[in-house]
Amino acid sequence: MRLEAVENARLLLGQWGESLAQVLESMTDQRPEVGWRTASGPFTEIAEASGSGPLEDILWWEQPFQVSPEMSVWVAAPRATWEYCGTLTLKAAGLETVELGEARNTWFEILGQSLSAMARSIGALLGREVTCETGVERSPDPETREWAAVSLKFAELSLAPLFVTLSPKLVAMISAPPPAGQTQPHEIVPQPPEPSPPEPSPPRSRTMDLLLDVDLPVSISFGRAQLPMKDILKLTTGSIVELNRGVSEQVEVLVNNCLIARGEVVVVDGNYGVRIQEIASRQDRLRTLR
């Protein structure tokens, strides 16, 4: 069945493209323009005609959904596209240099969040909760002929298109009429990407697993003050140092001297704590790094 002939398939693919743009915007502060079109034929011919580069450099991802083991979506990302998106995201987070493996893992994180949004859209069509199963790096059946080419454009830079295909089982399920007594939605409103990694998320590298157990120093800043040397030498028991922060103002949560959040001081079982009220923006974090 041709994807363009199935209204819900067209709707699902269009909404996934918007979800992908939302995820990229949340991570890079840049929202790409998204477009898509259908294409029919062998993947090798379509990819070559679209300037995707060497086929061996394409990253494949198969994402099954828990409704049925045969209900899956596949996404193919040319290297120029996944490397650019991964690198842009990591540089937005403050990294000056990005290795290829880091960009690759970051791309899978971006993809995972967007596919979680697709699961919610499928659930809206089926009238039930749909979540992602564990995905794998795997291409679809070589006989697959129906594709959607999803293009991303950042400012004046147009990236090589992503290629998406839906399993016949998925197309059949979203094409079926809704259960009796249930009205099929005319429009799926994409939900904003979840701030936390999707479940399940694409597999992390061994390096990332090791880093997750590293302890980081977390400190709370109540304020700062600058004093001349002569005043510092006069400090003694009972001296008062006035800080540059009011009593009602938020305190800062620092990790490795980098601002990550702001909040209010609370008392927990006789100990001081901080209730997080605001996550620091990327610009704030970069200012503290300087």
General description of the model:
With 290 residues, the protein is an alpha+beta fold. Strands 1, 2, 3, 4, 5 and 6 form a 6-stranded antiparallel sheet that branches. The chain folds into 2 domains: 3-211, Chemotaxis protein chec; 218-289, Roll (Surface presentation of antigens (SPOA)), CATH 2.30.330. 33% of the residues lie in helices and 24% in strands. The protein has helices at 7-28, 43-49, 79-92, 100-126, 168-175, 206-211, 229-233, 282-289; strands spanning 33-40, 59-65, 68-77, 146-154, 157-158, 162-166, 218-221, 251-255, 258-268, 271-279. Helix 1 packs across helix 4 (100-126) and helix 3 crosses helix 4.
Q: What's the layout of helices and strands?
A:
Elements: H1 7-28, E1 33-40, H2 43-49, E2 59-65, E3 68-77, H3 79-92, H4 100-126, E4 146-154, E5 157-158, E6 162-166, H5 168-175, H6 206-211, E7 218-221, H7 229-233, E8 251-255, E9 258-268, E10 271-279, H8 282-289
Antiparallel strand pairs: 1-4, 2-3, 3-6, 4-5, 4-6, 7-8, 8-9, 9-10
Helix pairs in contact: 1-4, 3-4
